[in-house]
Amino acid sequence: MTKNQAHxxxxxxxxxxxxxxxxxxxxxxxxxxxxxxxxxPGWLPMTKxxxxxxxxxxxxxxRKYQRKKLPFKYIEKMDALLETMGLKEKMTNDE
Length: 95
Description:
about 40% helix, about 100 residues, 3 helices, 4-stranded antiparallel β-sheet, 4 strands
């Protein structure tokens, strides 16, 4: 995964705002940041991403792979990481 490649998604909050999440590969690990509109003026680092954030990142990477924007080896690396975290079973149950 290249260093400059950022992946971003958003979801609605209960208050009606949007929660944006940005993840990028920093040569050895994934780095997550988040922003909640309209409450926050800027991006803040996410110290411990939730399981849902990890699964959303995997889903986003897979959709980019399907559009031929990402090699399959990155999906394999993400799957291996999720397996070490114990999230692989959760992913297969949701699909």
